[in-house]
């Protein structure tokens, strides 16, 4: 399965910006460049992420969209036969509705493969995004506490 990437460059890890190559504009261009079901699916995923977390930061890393808040939440990858959202710390998240259907064997990441014609469970997806944000914030606080103990 060949991954489809949009050949646009921006500084890795760049945050929301105003320039022509801001991450949000690169994501816009990636969606527009996919004039089939994959573009519509990626646009829907993006909208759901923004609905679930108003403070989400859009980034463009590794040639793909990345959504972050206190750390990476997930990425949005497009392939010929699917749109994949990979959750950076998915293995640590509860998934009561069974959305995760890919990368299940690892100890860290989990992914959801969306295929043509599949309906997105919007409520469950947004709940997963919120849980990922909560998890990132907890991990950030733990790191900060550990750093304070090390200094003191």
Task: Kindly describe this structure.
The structure is a single chain. This protein has 152 residues and is an alpha+beta fold. It has a single domain (20-151), classed as Aspartate Aminotransferase, domain 1. It contains three helices and six strands.
Please render the helix and strand layout as text.
Layout: E1 3-4, H1 23-33, H2 37-52, E2 57-61, E3 64-68, E4 72-79, E5 83-87, E6 110-114, H3 122-151
Antiparallel strand pairs: 1-4, 2-3, 3-4, 4-5, 5-6
Helix pairs in contact: 1-2, 2-3
Strand tally is 6
Q: Into which percentage range does the β-strand content fall?
A: 15-25%
Helical residue percent band: 25-40%
Q: How many domains, in number, for the residues?
A: 1
CATH top-level class: Alpha Beta
- Summed up, the helix count is 3
């Amino acid at each position: 399965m060949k991954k489809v990437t949009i050949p646009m460059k921006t500084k890795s890890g760049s945050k929301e910006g105003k320039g022509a190559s801001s991450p949000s504009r690169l994501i816009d261009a990636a969606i527009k460049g996919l004039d089939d079901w994959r573009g519509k699916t990626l646009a829907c995923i993006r909208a759901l992420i923004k609905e679930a977390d108003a403070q989400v930061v859009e980034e463009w890393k590794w040639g793909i969209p990345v959504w972050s808040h206190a750390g990476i939440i997930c990425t949005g990858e497009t392939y010929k036969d699917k749109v994949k959202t990979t959750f950076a710390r998915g293995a640590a998240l509860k998934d009561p509705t069974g959305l995760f259907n890919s990368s299940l064997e690892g100890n860290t990441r989990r992914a959801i493969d969306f295929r043509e014609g599949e309906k997105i469970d919007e409520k469950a997806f947004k709940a997963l995004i919120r849980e990922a944000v909560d998890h990132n914030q907890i991990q950030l606080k733990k790191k900060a506490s550990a750093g304070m103990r090390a200094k003191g």
